[in-house]
Amino acid sequence: VQLQASGGGLVQAGGSLRLSCTASGRTFRQYFMGWFRQAPGKEREFVAGISWSGLLTHYADSVKGRFTISRDNAQNTVSLQMNKLTPEDTAVYYCAADRYGGSRYDRTSEYDYWGQGTQVTVSS
């Protein structure tokens, strides 16, 4: 599976961005998908995850109520709608695919494939 993330950019605090991740391969619908982010000097952290069916979603506490993850298996895409952005959301955002979708969805080690990352910068 190859993942291509897009949609990052520069936005003012309070604004919105929508990230997209397009996957190659026919088995996309079998993967648990996640979004992570990494700010300068910090470890990569979990942001949101979604089950293969789209019925189960998980969010980091820091983004709950502001971010929404969704997927379209027919289009092989997973999206992250980000609202009410703050400067603390500034980071490189990565999409990732997990073949098994277990309970450790918030751990980078659980994911088998990663996209190249897209920069999100939120100005104050």
Task: From the structure above, extract its key features.
48% strand; 11 strands; 124 residues; mainly beta; 0% helix; 7-stranded mixed β-sheet; 4-stranded antiparallel β-sheet
How would you summarize what this structure contains?
It contains no helices and eleven strands. It has 124 residues and is mainly β.
What does this structure look like?
There is one protein chain. The protein has no helices and eleven strands. It has strands at about 5, 10, 15-25, 30-40, 45-50, 55-60, 65-70, 75-80, 90-100, 115, 120-124. It is globular. The protein is mostly beta strands and about 120 residues long.
Write the layout of secondary structure elements.
Elements (H helix, E strand, L loop, with lengths): L2 E4 L2 E4 L4 E7 L8 E7 L6 E6 L6 E3 L7 E6 L4 E6 L8 E8 L14 E2 L3 E6 L1
Parallel strand pairs: 2-11
Antiparallel strand pairs: 1-3, 3-8, 4-5, 4-9, 5-6, 7-8, 9-10, 9-11
